[in-house]
What does this fold into?
Amino acid sequence: MTTLLGCIADDFTGATDLAGLLARSGVQVSLRIGVPDAPPADTAPFEVIALKSRTAPVEAAKSDVLRALNWLQAAGAQRFFWKYCSTFDSTPDGNIGPVAEALMNALDTDQTIYCPAFPENGRAILMGNLFVGEQPLHESPMKDHPLTPMRDSNLMRLLEPQVTRPVGLANRLVVDRGVLALRDRLQDLKDNGVAHVIVDAVSDADLPIIAEACRDMPLMTGGSAVAMPLPQLYLRDGTLPADAPKAAKPDNLAESGIVLSGSCSAMTRAQVQDYVATGAPAFRLEPLTLADQGADAALTWLGEQDLSRRPLIYATAEPDQVRAAQEKLGTTRAGEIVEQALAACATAARDAGAGRIVVAGGETSGAVTQALGVSQLDIGPEIAPGVPWTYCTTDGKRVALTLKSGNFGTETFFTDAFERLDTA
Ligand code: ADP
It folds into this structure.
């Protein structure tokens, strides 16, 4: 059907997070990996395009985003959402502000909002200052991020050098007074030439107020949470008909599955340990063996498995083991060897009939989706906040795929994932 809301996310896991929150309401949400080459067909009311623009050069980011905008406009969208990280990951050059301004120019609109708050995940904005849990952003671990170190917590100060037009604030006291008060404040700011408005949000209750006040803006920007109420608002006033097709699990999904883990984050290590302890068959990939002998041993092992037991293949290792492999092979090569091996296991498992594939690791997910030739995902039920099941077509088969970045989910994530789909 015609797309109602066109969303553009500056990285892949951010796009999945947004798509998952939009789909909580049961509506159809489609996620595209990159801007599709083909013109829109079979579009969903909510379309999310995942870019890799967070740390790209500003001009490249703007041009990618405008291509995404054109595609979404061709799909019929008239309202747009620009999604970035809830920790406002950016530098004085961008890319949050320059991209928002490029979108505003293309849409011929003179005001947008910035609301990266995600109360459920401990991201709150008060008087324009962003908090991570109880810490101001500049005291949180984000201060040491290798690419986008965040050394200020004040979103107005962070945004000002990134944009050419004035920046203002609609603070929590206004949001607390409700939709009409917030609309009045935005109009006041607009009358005074303020194009870029930071909007405070501290608790979940603030989000529907902001979403409702801003839903008719051609462009909203923020983290995923402020977009979450939009499907309900569209359903309530009939913008999205109540009988619009709902997200549905494909009928012919094979029961068998596999878990592929290439993340070495603390949470993924605990998840691997927990899944092995359930008695699931497991095979450990060693980067040095892979470098010497390729992935044949893993593929042979996989060929002997009963996929209804949903085996695990993992490279997940402790930091000292990872360092040892990286010292011998180089960090990039070690990463690539592991990613390629897991990607080969994914296609082999699919060819052996696996209908459910769980992948842990952001980069690993990229390698697996590429190997499976997947560029479009329909969003299914949520397993953990920000991690939904998705349905895709690979080699002509419908397959369920979940792509979990490093620290997402709790220890029982792999078991939870299969249970969630079994009961969907
Ligand atoms: P995360 O989401 O936790 O960052 P990623 O998949 O994005 O996970 O990144 C993990 C990287 O580490 C990948 O490039 C992966 O191939 C690599 N890797 C996985 N296991 C090992 C290992 N044992 N030794 C070295 N590198 C590894």
